[in-house]
């Protein structure tokens, strides 16, 4: 693909200096390609990994050519099933009688990772589109297609796959916020088969490997009460709920009701009865007037919580999300990029206060930006003298980068995922960062 991912010249200059890949072009090449591996996390609340493997093989026989994939269980994470695409260049033909449908960039990226097309992601479709038509799906690469367009789209576009319409054009555009699947994908240019039906059973969740690794790094025990401070849409919340079940609980916070609705929807789908979700700004999640030893926490507790309430805290922080793959265009400016560390530090203050002595706090982001990763770690170690880095029980990523305030021996305690597109499933994944802290015991 010839277009640059990043359009802002200052962002391009900044990223060039981060040296994540040998050149900025190489970084953009990695970002534009979907990972070769699709990961499904088995919801062990509902099904064993063995039974899940069987269901997955049945789905592959139904929806794809099973010879195009290698299916295995991750050697270190037994709840992660790896689907490796063996067809490196999936050169699919566009049927001559198919109709062109244009989707937005988020929808296009999701299609390449195994999603069907929800009506809300469709931008353009011809007037004569009916149910059960063959469609060729293209992504609008520069956000130029007007919603509801019926014209042949002439702007830069990328073919992502073939599908069948489940809704007519009228059904797709009759309301401003249409609900449901509009197009079922039959084949994608990435070779990734549609996984939506498997997900709907509640037995699986499509997740990137580093996101699953977050739960393994926090490593709560069954029965633990865990705080997930920035939880929506709830992928990690569901994993944590699985790890602490049946008697443990996950308190999941996010900033708005629609976000909480996503978590509740996922909990219902996955049968996770041990999630308590609350609209709460994480920065206000600490009870101000509480004497604070956290001993009053129980299953009916609501935020704000007393200081020291949780032995396990996850801060999966809002971030620049530069590590998302595939991404086609990213219009982010330098001001927005530099706005995240301030919010991350404010949220970290709350996460720290809610952590009990000897407790574990995991900080993670889906960006490769050192200012939101290693520099936050250096700041945290300096700001909170009773925090120290804690080794992760499972290592999948590469060590962190050396920045001012960190020692060389600190780096092995961090895990960085830099989207190495020729790597194994641990590295050919999205850009991500994970670190675990522990709070020293009371003197
Ligand atoms: N952990 C989530 C998962 O695995 O599905 C993804 C979390 S996403 C990286 C960051 C989340 O932080 C967003 O859902 C966003 O709404 C939330 N957020 C942003 N500011 C927040 C705040 N002040 N308090 C709580 N949540 C916030």
Question: What do you see in this structure?
Answer:
By secondary structure, this protein is of the alpha/beta class. It has three domains: 10-87, no CATH class; 99-188, Archaeosine Trna-guanine Transglycosylase, Chain: A, domain 4 (Roll); 208-439, 3-Layer(aba) Sandwich (Rossmann fold). Helices cover 26% and strands 23% of the residues. It contains twelve helices and 18 strands. The protein has helices at residues 9-16, 24-32, 49-63, 105-112, 169-173, 196-200, 209-218, 235-244, 257-270, 334-337, 340-354, 374-383, and strands at 37-42, 69-73, 80-85, 99-103, 117-118, 122-124, 134-140, 157-165, 181-188, 204-206, 225-228, 249-254, 275-279, 310-316, 355-365, 387-389, 414-417, 432-439. The strands form three sheets. Strands 11, 12, 13, 14, 15, 16, 17 and 18 form an eight-stranded mixed β-sheet that branches. Helix 7 packs across helix 8 (235-244). The longest helix has 15 residues, at 49-63. The protein is globular, with a radius of gyration of 22 Å. The relative contact order is 0.13. The mean pLDDT is 93. The chain binds S-adenosylmethionine (SAM).
SSE diagram, text form:
Layout: H1 9-16, H2 24-32, E1 37-42, H3 49-63, E2 69-73, E3 80-85, E4 99-103, H4 105-112, E5 117-118, E6 122-124, E7 134-140, E8 157-165, H5 169-173, E9 181-188, H6 196-200, E10 204-206, H7 209-218, E11 225-228, H8 235-244, E12 249-254, H9 257-270, E13 275-279, E14 310-316, H10 334-337, H11 340-354, E15 355-365, H12 374-383, E16 387-389, E17 414-417, E18 432-439
Parallel strand pairs: 4-7, 11-12, 11-14, 12-13, 14-15
Antiparallel strand pairs: 1-3, 1-10, 2-3, 4-6, 5-9, 7-8, 8-9, 15-18, 16-18, 17-18
Bound molecules: S-adenosylmethionine (SAM).
S-adenosylmethionine (SAM) binds at residues 211, 230-236, 253-255, 259, 281-283, 316, 318.
């Amino acid at each position: 693909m010839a277009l640059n991912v990043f359009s802002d010249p200052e962002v391009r200059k900044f990223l060039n200096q981060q040296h994540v890949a040998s050149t900025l072009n190489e970084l953009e090449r990695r970002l534009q390609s979907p990972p070769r591996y699709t990961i499904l996390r088995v919801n062990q609340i509902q099904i064993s990994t063995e039974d899940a493997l069987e269901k997955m093989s049945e789905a592959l026989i139904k929806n794809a050519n099973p010879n195009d994939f290698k299916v295995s269980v991750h050697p270190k994470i037994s709840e992660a099933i790896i689907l490796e695409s063996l067809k490196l260049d999936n050169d699919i033909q566009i049927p001559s009688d198919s109709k062109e449908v244009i989707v937005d960039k988020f929808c296009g990226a999701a299609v390449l990772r195994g999603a069907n097309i929800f009506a809300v992601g469709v931008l353009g479709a011809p007037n004569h589109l009916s149910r059960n038509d063959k469609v060729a799906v293209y992504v609008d690469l520069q956000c130029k297609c007007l919603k509801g367009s019926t014209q042949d789209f002439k702007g830069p576009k990328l073919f992502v796959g073939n599908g069948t319409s489940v809704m007519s054009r009228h059904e797709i555009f009759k309301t401003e916020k249409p609900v449901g699947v509009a197009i079922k994908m039959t084949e994608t240019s990435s070779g990734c088969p549609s996984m939506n039906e498997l997900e709907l059973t509640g037995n699986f969740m499509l997740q990137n490997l580093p996101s699953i690794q977050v739960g393994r790094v926090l490593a709560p025990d069954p029965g633990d009460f865990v705080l997930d401070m920035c939880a929506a849409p709830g992928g990690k919340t569901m994993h944590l709920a699985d790890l602490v079940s049946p008697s443990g609980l996950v308190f999941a916070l996010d900033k708005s009701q629609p976000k909480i609705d996503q978590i509740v929807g996922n909990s219902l789908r996955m049968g996770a009865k041990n999630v308590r979700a609350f609209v709460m700004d994480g920065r206000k999640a600490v009870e101000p007037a509480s004497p604070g030893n956290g001993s009053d926490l129980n299953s009916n507790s609501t935020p704000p919580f007393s200081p020291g309430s949780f032995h396990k805290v996850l801060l999966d922080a809002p971030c620049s999300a530069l590590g998302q793959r595939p991404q086609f265009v990213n219009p982010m400016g330098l001001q927005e990029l530099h706005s995240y560390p301030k919010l991350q530090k404010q949220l970290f203050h709350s996460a720290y206060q809610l952590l009990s002595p000897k407790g574990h706090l995991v900080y993670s982001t889906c960006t490769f930006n050192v200012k939101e990763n290693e520099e936050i770690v250096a700041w945290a170690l300096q700001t909170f003298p009773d925090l120290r880095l804690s080794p992760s029980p499972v290592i999948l990523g590469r060590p962190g980068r050396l920045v001012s305030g960190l020692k060389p021996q600190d780096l092995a305690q961090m895990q960085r995922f830099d989207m190495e597109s020729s790597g194994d499933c641990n590295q050919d994944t999205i850009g991500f960062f994970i670190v675990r802290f522990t709070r020293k015991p009371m003197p």
